[in-house]
Each structure stands twice: as C-alpha cells, then as structure tokens.
C-alpha cells in the first residue's frame, strides 16, 4: 500500500500534534503501531521494546538485511509556529523534525509492505535521540540482535537546504557530542557579608569564562570544536549570596580524539575553579552514544552515486555539521550512512518556530524508495 501525499500529510500533521520527550513516547508509539497494523501484514513482523518499534519486512530470497532508522522523540520547547496543527502537548514540540522523519519512514515501509523486496528490510522507530542515547540503549540491550541489519541508513531534516534536496558527504557528517553538567557548591550568605560566604555566582562565572578559552587556545585552529553552555542557574534574589551554581552545556567535535581532548580540558578547568574558589564541584561529562556520525565509505558511495544520477533528485554535497546524533553509535557498530533531507526554512533546528516545508516528505519518500529498490537488487 503506497501512502498518498494526502495520507502522508495527515500522518505528519497528526504526529506533529503529539510530541513526547525521550523514553516517554507512548502516544507516538501507539499512533505508529496503528498505521503499521493497517499495512499489508503478509511479510511484516512487528516487535516493541519499551517505546521503540521494530519492524521486519521479510524478503522473498533474503541474503542480507537493509536497515532504516528514524527517531521519534521531541524536545521541551514551547511551539510558536502558529500552525493549525501545532503541538497539543504543552511545553513540548517536534522542533527537530522527528515527526517528519517518522512520516518518511512510514512512507517507505508502506511501499515495501506491499512490494516485497528480495532482501529483508528492517525499520527501527527509535526513542530518545535528543537526550538519552536511545540508539545505544537499544543496541547494547540486544534488542536489535534478531534482525541486525547488514547496513543501515537514516536521515535528518535540514532547514538550510531546498525542500526535498538530499545532502550527504563521505566521512564525518555530524559531530560527536558530550553533555556537560557542572554543580558548584560553596556557602550562601548575606549580600553585605561576602567574606563570610562563598559565592557560587562568581565561581560559576569564572568557569563559564574559562571554558571560552578551550576552543580559542586548546583546539588546533585547522580542526573544529564547540563548547556551548545553555543553562546557568544560581541564586534566588539580589541580596542573597548563592551557595550553589548549576551549569549545563555541550561539547561538539568532529573526531572522538578532539572530543576527549575538550572533555579533559573541561575537567581540568572545573577542578581549577574549585581550587581557586575553595569550593566543591561535581562534574558529569556524558557522551553516551553521541559519537561522530562517520559515514561508511561503501554505503555512502552507493547512496551518493544513486542520488546524483536519479532524475528528480536534487543532490547537494554538504559540509560536516556540529549537530549531534546517536545514529553515530549505530554506525560505529553497523555499516551505514546518514544524510540530510532539505526542508527549506528560515528557522534553525530546535527553534520554536521551525515549520518544515511538507513538500519534502513526498520527495524524500520517492528518493529513498528508489534507492532501496536499487540497493535491494544490488545485494540480491
Ligand atoms: C540533531 C540534533 O539536534 N541532535 C542533538 C543531539 C543532542 C546530544 C546531547 N544531548 C548533547 O546535547 O550533547 C543536538 O543537540 O545536536
């Protein structure tokens, strides 16, 4: 059953309205299962693991298994798109396009549920891409073992590319990331008696300032790195010295080596600030499964060669990006390729105003279906 443009649009708009945070994607999973169970079932096997959904399309003469992964979680962002199908879940939004990723996956699955491939196709609807290494959790738990694909593909929407364009590159597509969680503990007190307290606003401010030196002074200028601190909470009122500071951020680098180098510098600076301010620091550096997305040379050549010659596909060779993806962990275990799907937007990923151009859905489904058909023949 090939899903029509109208059906795909409805799925996208329905999913957009029910964003859920990582590992809590129950309504999303129920919606996905409802669509999947209405497809021709003859060649389908369906499994759920917590909020993940795994589907195998059995091939007619299977020698290999080709995988497709979509993420399904949303972000704690309050939507401000003004769309008629805006989020119904307060404080949550599909601001990273996972609703569109799921729709493309369903379009692809629907086609192959009706047109049996020679090889097996494996579809993974994966929770918690944004915050809890959903891909790593599933892989490490053995949940994929029965249907482990020989190669795996996935996409991410890209607001900067024209709607429906496919963007990819050999080598690293996305950075490896690492979350920074720093907690400084000093001594609170009266604003008038700083000598009797230990002010964590000041200690935290030094930590923030000193981290700015990592990229400028410790990263080789011809390589790349990012240290962003997105949250700093300390204190309650202007005339009370705060004894606590809570700072969270993220590291980005295009190689694991550079990621670890930056992690070590963050650790050293945190310890140095604690020493200098005579306070305690608890520092958690959490990389989880957010390894650099290093595209496999063979699957990436196959995909790029195909997209470059396929009529109707606007293929664009892209630069590496500092966004992260736990797909990096999956393709450190399974050969595979991630690529961009353009959605032509003035707003960035994670913006409360992100409203992807829906024309990308049909173009994406068509391009990837055609690629999977060709890949299925090649691997037969
Ligand atoms: C595509 C995208 O936006 N991914 C996220 C992944 C977040 C990883 C982790 N929680 C971190 O912040 O380091 C991104 O922010 O790039």
UniProtKB/TrEMBL annotation:
<dbReference type="GO" id="GO:0046872">
    <property type="term" value="F:metal ion binding"/>
</dbReference>
<comment type="function">
    <text>Catalyzes the conversion of N-acetyl-diaminopimelate to diaminopimelate and acetate.</text>
</comment>
<keyword id="KW-0464">Manganese</keyword>
<keyword id="KW-0378">Hydrolase</keyword>
<dbReference type="Pfam" id="PF01546">
    <property type="entry name" value="Peptidase_M20"/>
</dbReference>
<feature type="binding site">
    <location>
        <position position="350"/>
    </location>
    <ligand>
        <name>Mn(2+)</name>
    </ligand>
</feature>
<dbReference type="Pfam" id="PF07687">
    <property type="entry name" value="M20_dimer"/>
</dbReference>
<dbReference type="GO" id="GO:0009089">
    <property type="term" value="P:lysine biosynthetic process via diaminopimelate"/>
</dbReference>
<feature type="binding site">
    <location>
        <position position="98"/>
    </location>
    <ligand>
        <name>Mn(2+)</name>
    </ligand>
</feature>
<dbReference type="InterPro" id="IPR002933">
    <property type="entry name" value="Peptidase_M20"/>
</dbReference>
<feature type="binding site">
    <location>
        <position position="96"/>
    </location>
    <ligand>
        <name>Mn(2+)</name>
    </ligand>
</feature>
<keyword id="KW-0220">Diaminopimelate biosynthesis</keyword>
<keyword id="KW-0457">Lysine biosynthesis</keyword>
<keyword id="KW-0028">Amino-acid biosynthesis</keyword>
<comment type="similarity">
    <text>Belongs to the peptidase M20A family. N-acetyldiaminopimelate deacetylase subfamily.</text>
</comment>
<keyword id="KW-0479">Metal-binding</keyword>
<feature type="binding site">
    <location>
        <position position="156"/>
    </location>
    <ligand>
        <name>Mn(2+)</name>
    </ligand>
</feature>
<dbReference type="GO" id="GO:0019877">
    <property type="term" value="P:diaminopimelate biosynthetic process"/>
</dbReference>
<dbReference type="GO" id="GO:0050118">
    <property type="term" value="F:N-acetyldiaminopimelate deacetylase activity"/>
</dbReference>
<dbReference type="InterPro" id="IPR023905">
    <property type="entry name" value="AcetylDAP_deacetylase"/>
</dbReference>
<protein>
    <recommendedName>
        <fullName>N-acetyldiaminopimelate deacetylase</fullName>
        <ecNumber>3.5.1.47</ecNumber>
    </recommendedName>
</protein>
<comment type="pathway">
    <text>Amino-acid biosynthesis; L-lysine biosynthesis via DAP pathway; LL-2,6-diaminopimelate from (S)-tetrahydrodipicolinate (acetylase route): step 3/3.</text>
</comment>
<feature type="binding site">
    <location>
        <position position="130"/>
    </location>
    <ligand>
        <name>Mn(2+)</name>
    </ligand>
</feature>
<dbReference type="InterPro" id="IPR017439">
    <property type="entry name" value="Amidohydrolase"/>
</dbReference>
<feature type="active site">
    <location>
        <position position="71"/>
    </location>
</feature>
<dbReference type="InterPro" id="IPR011650">
    <property type="entry name" value="Peptidase_M20_dimer"/>
</dbReference>
<dbReference type="InterPro" id="IPR036264">
    <property type="entry name" value="Bact_exopeptidase_dim_dom"/>
</dbReference>
<feature type="active site" description="Proton acceptor">
    <location>
        <position position="130"/>
    </location>
</feature>
